């Protein structure tokens, strides 16, 4: 088995002169949990269907376990798909739903029974083998769908937004169970979602897609803390964006102007003097102080509190700075800390620690 279980090389997909995917180059590592993340219509599901064989690429090559699968039927690719609807057979009980694929391959009854017993234990459904899908909860149905897929021992399991129909609490529970299941099975999972938090909490790596292309590939921490484009920064979480300009360059230290004040920022990327840039600061990295709490305001920006949103563990502040820009700040709540008791209209100072920002080339 190769280190990269799946490889896509210059893959594009067009329908009626409309390009859905363009120039996709992607390597999926053996045994990893990879998530395709992006807004609706960006091509995530189409990419999944190309890998599974339900669609054929217009251009490019797809390799599974080192073999070119061009023209190979879906059932011969040794990958299985769990759909959003689960696609369980309503007239079959749990045992028969899981056994369906094994019976199609004409496996011996004893082996079928052993495999099903093994997978039922993994998904914790041993007590439900005689129930039909309409007698199961949404989470149990999802586990049956996963069990039916993994019992065939695929090289890769493809999951097309399988949690989207679950309520919030069950969805959170299933995210943990799904990740634990993937670790236990050791099977490569390719998971499709438009939910940023879901992608960050479950994945080994995230592929951020936008309008048919790949914007960035990296670990959850990389795509969140070091976005490579404004598109990625805006899609994953919230961010404050300051339009600025490089005033001076000293190696990798850049002097910029923000809200009329100069700040020196370090960045691994290269910029030139006079270049327009965007300075990105996450709300949890922005700090807000009351007027009486600060002495030196050299690196701080004056503003007024426009909104206070209490969320239990955090307090979100919306602050309008002196140049009329709105920024968001998230502060962790402490019942013994009166500092978070801000009033709407209260004058405040906002700032962040140097090194907590990201500089990107200017984009609209």
* Range of helix content: 10-25%
Q: Compute the CA-based radius of gyration.
A: 25 Å
Order of helices and strands: EEEHEEEHHHEHEHEEHHEEEEEEEEEE
Report the mean per-residue pLDDT as an integer: 89
* Side-by-side strand order of the widest sheet: 6-7-8-3-9-10
| Number of extended strands | 20
Q: Which residue ranges are poorly predicted, with pLDDT under 50 across at least 5 consecutive positions?
A: none
**Main sheet attributes: strand count, strand direction, barrel closure:** 6 strands, mixed
Query: What is the strand content?
Result: 35-45%
N- and C-termini, Cα separation: 45 Å
Query: How many distinct helices?
Result: 8
Cα shape: elongated
**SS-derived structural category:** alpha+beta
Fold and architecture overview:
This protein has 364 residues and is α+β, with helices and mostly antiparallel strands. It is 23% helix and 36% strand. The chain contains eight helices and 20 strands. A six-stranded mixed β-sheet has the order 6-7-8-3-9-10, with helices on both faces. α2 (94-104) packs across α3 (109-122) and α2 (94-104) packs parallel to α4. 34% of the residues are buried. The mean pLDDT is 89.
């Amino acid at each position: 088995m190769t280190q990269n279980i799946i490889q896509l090389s210059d893959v594009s997909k067009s329908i009626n002169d409309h390009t859905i995917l363009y120039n996709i180059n992607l390597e999926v590592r053996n045994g990893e949990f990879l998530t395709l993340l992006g807004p609706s219509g960006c091509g995530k599901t189409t990419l999944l269907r190309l890998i599974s064989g339900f669609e054929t690429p217009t251009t490019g090559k797809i390799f599974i376990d080192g073999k070119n699968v061009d023209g190979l039927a879906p059932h011969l690719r040794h990958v299985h798909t769990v759909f959003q609807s689960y696609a369980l057979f309503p007239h079959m009980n749990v045992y028969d739903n899981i056994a369906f694929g094994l019976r199609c391959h004409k496996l011996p009854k004893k082996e079928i029974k052993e495999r099903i017993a093994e997978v039922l234990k993994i998904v914790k459904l041993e007590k439900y083998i005689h129930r039909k899908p309409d007698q199961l909860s949404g989470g149990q149905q999802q586990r049956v769908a996963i069990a039916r897929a993994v019992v065939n021992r695929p090289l890769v399991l493809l999951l097309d937004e399988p949690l989207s129909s679950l309520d919030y609490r069950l969805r959170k529970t299933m995210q943990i169970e799904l990740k634990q299941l993937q670790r236990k099975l050791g099977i490569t999972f390719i998971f499709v979602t438009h939910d940023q938090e879901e992608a960050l909490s479950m994945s080994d790596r995230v592929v951020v897609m936008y309008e048919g292309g790949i914007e960035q590939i990296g670990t959850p921490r990389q795509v969140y803390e070091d976005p490579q484009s404004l598109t990625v920064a805006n899609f994953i979480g919230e961010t404050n964006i300051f339009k600025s300009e490089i005033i001076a360059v000293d190696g990798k230290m850049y002097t910029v102007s923000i809200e009329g004040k100069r700040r020196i920022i370090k960045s691994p990327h290269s910029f030139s003097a006079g270049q327009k840039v965007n300075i990105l600061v996450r709300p949890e990295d922005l700090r807000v102080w009351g007027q009486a709490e600060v002495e030196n305001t050299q690196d701080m920006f004056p503003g007024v509190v426009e909104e206070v949103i209490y969320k239990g563990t955090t307090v979100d502040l919306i602050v309008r700075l002196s140049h009329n820009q709105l920024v968001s700040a998230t502060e962790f709540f402490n019942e013994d800390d009166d500092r978070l008791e801000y009033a709407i209209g209260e004058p405040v100072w906002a700032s962040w620690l140097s090194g907590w920002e990201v500089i990107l080339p200017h984009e609209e």
